[in-house]
Amino acid sequence: MNNAPDHVPLIRTTRGGFAECVHVGSIAVVDADGHLIAGVGDAHGLNFTRSALKPLQALAFVADGGMGQFGFDSQMLALMCASHGGEAMHVAIVRRMLERIGAKESDLRCGCHPPSYYTHTSTSAPPGARFSQLHHNCSGKHAGFLAFCRLHHQPLARYLELDVPLQQRVRASVERFAGERDLPMGIDGCSAPNYAMPLSALAHTFCQLALGESPELAALAYAMRRHPDLVSGTHRGDLMLMQAGAGDWVSKVGADGVQAIGVRSRGIGIAIRIADGNRRALHVATLAVLQQLGLIDDPAGTPLAPMDEGVTRSYRGIAVGTVEPVFSLPRLA
Questions:
Q1: Is the overall model pTM greater than 0.70, yes or no?
Q2: Which residues, in sequence order, are bridge partners of residue 39?
Q3: pLDDT tens across 279-290, in order?
Q4: What is the C-alpha separation between 187 and 76, in angstroms, rounded?
Q5: I need a labelling partner for 251 at 20 to 30 A (CA). Which of 51, 113, 204, 207 fits?
Q6: How far apart are CA 171 and CA 16, in angstroms?
Q7: Where are the beta strands (DSSP E) in 132-278?
Q8: CA geometry: angle at 45 spanning 295 and 58, to 5°?
């Protein structure tokens, strides 16, 4: 059965003045009651949340008093919500989290990849560098999963299996915020269960997160806003967005073209999906949404300037094309 969202063109690239690529997707903007106030494409369509789900994956640990039980601080909570760059500061905090709960790197089940720091900074790893699961962008989330298991005296080895209390709690949280049951489930790149939500529900989730509508959500939002460098890392979009928001926005990217933002002062949530997962298109679409909502003006000279990828350049720096939004946000209410 085809249940793909009914996406529409959002971003077009040109080369030599001729249209070259079109990136389709959808956008949802909701108010504090979850009402759709602006949207493009299939604003209620189901999309995998990927790493934008991380605040909900940390929610049960916070709600059950895990922070106080293990002496976790806001840096550690930020890492539980992070898709970090594997920088020294990230690795050190995840290592401390494991030490606090009496776990080891080998207890993690996220796998290993080279730190994304090198990709985002266009640098190379030092010769002979070796990496562990601590460098995986989801290691903080997985350390939080292990901490939940310790808190409830559950075995560590099975923490990713669907029938364990941890993953049952995560699913219940997702269903509550989605307002739906029987959501599509898949396995994320870090081997953790992940869920598809209506795009508008993801936007509403981040609105509630930004507003701190429960003590647990307030704690998560505080950690993310206070430590955006831990939630993402050097030259990363979520760091730029939360710096630009100056304590007003909470932001989380998800792999394959997902961006969620909550804006406390406006009481709104934003969710964007680029269907082919193109990161450049996602950046341009995100800035266009923020501009059309009146949240930013020209990104030049702001923390968002590196996300303004509206000009395509050759490796010699010559402007050869454009990346431009082809949508306008109709106001629905």
A1: yes
A2: 28
A3: 999 999 999 999
A4: 24
A5: 113
A6: 48
A7: 185-187, 193-198, 249-254, 258-263, 268-274
A8: 70
